[in-house]
Please model this.
Amino acid sequence: MSTENSTKLSDTEISYWVAFNRISNVGPARFALLRNHFPDMRSAWNASISELEEAKIPSGIAEKIIFERATINPEEELYKVIANNLKIITLSDDSYPALLREIHNPPPILYCKGTVQDPKDTQGIAIVGTRKNTTYGARVTESITRELTENECTIVSGLALGIDSIAHRACLRAKGRTIAVLACGLETVYPSSHERLAREIIENNGLLCSEFPIGTKSFKSNFPQRNRIISGMTRGTLIVEATKKSGSLITANCALEQNREVFAVPGSVFSSVSQGPNSLISQGATLVTGAKDIMVTFNMERITTDSQISKPEPDNPIHKKIYDLLGNESCHIDDIVVRGELDARNIHSILVTMELNGYLKEDGGGYYTRL
Model:
């Protein structure tokens, strides 16, 4: 089994790490107590109640550990990992994410699919937001993600609907590395509609990871725990769109607690999904209108790429009129006809031609935005 660890933990020892990760009352803090007290996790697994108490495990919790471990077979737990083609990364491994290792109580074990390490990960940026994004949110996410990716940043998110998946896909289109952190066991993908996206991430030098054991469902309580990993693996977290009660704000709070940077994209005061980022900005988060704002914060050297070079405007007078009236907003085809005083009979063919020439794109529902 490939465990991706340079410290050469034996498969037997790793099986006890995996087994302990299934015990409900042993989180990162108690896992650390066990590691600090016992010579290895096998010894901790076989310890008596009194020995566990010597490791500063409360007596009630020690009794629960003894009770639960009687129902868990370490070898079988390791077999489940192997059968699902997962890699195990522990805190003892040099390949454990360096930025994540720095946070308070990092997860002792990560289940992984894909490429575990990449030099770009030291420049990781988290991009998260609402599941019900606007066209504006999608455009901002795509633009910022693309430029960060082209400037050698790893994009980290949660594979959720909306802003998360838009960030993952934009990174893949820019041929970059993206990491998806899940709130369930890695034998499944949540949401299931993103199974193809998950495969594309793995196939393109990306990574899926989770601290949750095989068989863990996507319980609501898992997501705040997952969010601290998203922020912990990165230098900063960008919130694009989020309501006041969005889980994305939990990620932002995790970043603050981890002494990481928080960025937010401003939005309309009339939009509910702008309330979250606008509130963060009022509390001191860095206002972001482009990737340059993030890169300046970290003194990153900005590389100018082809996608950042301004395109020449259309030569055709009608195309130029449509291009100008679109500006930076999405516009419905009916509004384009009215505002541009155009012939409705020809508008579809005109828009198709402009899309083929790379001047605009259709967002669905008859709406178009300028590229």
In short: Residues 1-6 have pLDDT under 50 and may be disordered. The CA atoms of residues 5 and 93 lie 5 Å apart.
